[in-house]
Specification:
alpha/beta; 12% strand
Length: 408
């Protein structure tokens, strides 16, 4: 076992998770082109090569450039049929590389218009994921119980900010409240989504497992969405928050205090005192030490997205400069995710291989990171069922290790 190499083939064979992947950032390019033609979405190109050159690049100049691609994908996903198809294909793409647990997140309110409400949008995504799950789990080894099943969950994303141009839903909200401050509308939309997410789970039987807050951090504090997260919290909905991606540790502090976050999306700047912008924090080193210790002790897992962070943070010149190595050294609970498979042209296998090749992830840490993805997932079943599932995953992981072992 000591000579076991960490190869792409080995990682692809391992059971894995992706706890942070956006549906509208992970379409197949061929599907995007087909849907764009069908729904008359104007794009700079209708070929895969042209879109890779113009929109979906290997490196971006800024977060703004990275986000430009969403204007095309969201427009292409404005029907229940398109959402269902995209969800099914995303599950299939993950299954092909050994992902056994997938949490797909999306912002239903970006797809709401007359004829499609938030619960219906969630239901469409659930249908696609459920169909792909059921088909995959009919495989003989899985049906016989010798391998872990493929499971999934849906995370509903609220937006830190938006304008009327984001979707018909937001345009209608602005029109209905012409004298409200934008901050009030952001909070109002989040509360409405939290109610829809709970209703989708409890009244409609959809596999909604979590609530998220995404979008620009600077100038749009998490505390504005406290009421929505309180509602989710009171209804036993698990919670994650995009924080520490493009802002400092104090953004992560807001996520765990104001929003009861169980996990943190990205968390890149958790241990970086120089990233603190709050002038009232005098001893920055002490602040990040205490914050890091609290998150480590509470096992609040960080959803790390390496390629995405490299692409959206121009000051990161290479992956070797990513904070992941420091986070692991502090024994924080971390798991590797893709964020956006299309925008970042990546996969779970690729992200894990990058961590091994550039950030010193050895076989022991690789196993720890992967298994923590299962342990800290927002699994839809009972706690006992989750424990059984994780045990089955660990057994399968170790069987793959034995299969790939070479003579010493």
């Amino acid at each position: 076992m000591e000579s076991l190499p960490i190869t792409r083939e080995f990682i692809a064979a391992l059971p894995k998770t992706d706890l942070h992947v956006h549906l509208d950032g992970s379409l197949r390019l061929s599907t995007l082109i087909e849907l764009a033609r069908e729904h008359r979405v104007e794009m700079p190109s209708y070929t895969e090569g042209g879109l890779r050159e113009a929109v979906f690049k290997d490196r971006y100049a800024s977060l703004g450039e990275y986000l430009q691609g969403f204007q095309y994908t969201v427009c292409a996903l404005q029907t229940a049929e398109a959402l269902e198809r995209a969800a099914a294909e995303l599950a299939e793409d993950n299954q092909r590389e050994g992902v056994r647990y997938l949490e797909v997140r999306f912002a239903p309110q970006l797809h709401v218009h007359p004829g499609l409400d938030a619960v219906q949008a969630i239901a469409a995504v659930d249908r696609g994921l459920r169909r792909a799950r059921d088909e995959y789990n009919r495989r003989p080894a899985i049906a016989a119980g010798t391998e872990p099943q493929f499971e999934y969950g849906i995370i509903c994303c609220a937006m830190r900010m938006f304008t009327a141009g984001f979707s018909q839903y937001y345009a209608t909200l602005f029109a209905a409240h012409p004298y409200a401050r934008a901050k009030e509308l952001y909070a109002m939309a989040s509360v409405e989504l939290a109610r829809a997410a709970v209703a989708a789970r409890d009244r409609h039987g959809l596999q909604v497992v979590g609530f998220d807050l995404a979008g620009e951090e600077a100038g749009y504090p998490a505390g504005d969405h406290k009421q929505a997260y309180d509602y989710a919290h009171r209804h036993f909905m698990k919670k994650t928050v995009h924080a520490g991606e493009a802002y400092g540790p104090e953004s992560i502090f807001q996520a765990i205090t104001d929003l009861h976050a169980d996990r943190i999306g990205h968390g890149t700047y958790l241990l970086e005192p120089d990233a603190i912008r709050d002038e009232d924090i005098a001893d920055r080193e002490h602040y990040v030490e205490r914050l890091g210790n609290y998150i480590a002790d509470r096992r609040i897992t960080l959803e790390v997205c390496l390629t995405s962070n490299l692409q959206t943070n121009p000051h990161l010149r290479s992956l070797e400069e990513h904070t992941f190595r420091k986070l692991r050294a502090q024994r924080l609970s971390t798991t590797i995710c893709t964020d956006n498979r299309l925008m970042s042209n990546t996969s779970v296998t690729n992200e894990l291989l990058l961590a091994c090749n550039h950030l010193g992830l050895d076989r022991h840490d690789l196993k720890s990171v992967i298994i923590y993805g299962f342990k800290r997932s927002f699994f839809a079943g009972s706690y006992q069922r989750k424990r059984q599932y994780v045990r089955q995953v660990i057994d399968h992981y170790e069987a793959v290790e034995r299969r790939f072992a070479l003579p010493a």
